Amino acid sequence: MLCSLLLIAATFCPGWADTWESIRAAAGNVDAISADFVQEKHLPILARPLVSKGRLFYRRPDSLRWEYTSPVKSVLLMHDGDARRFVQSDQGLVEDASVRLQAMQFVMPEISGWLGGRFQDNPLFDASLHGTNKILLVPKDAGMARFIQRIELFMSDRPGVIEKVMIFESEDAFTRMVFSNTVAKA
Question: Quick one: 18 exposed, middle or buried, by C-beta within 10 A (0-12, 13-18, 19+)?
Answer without folding.
Answer: middle
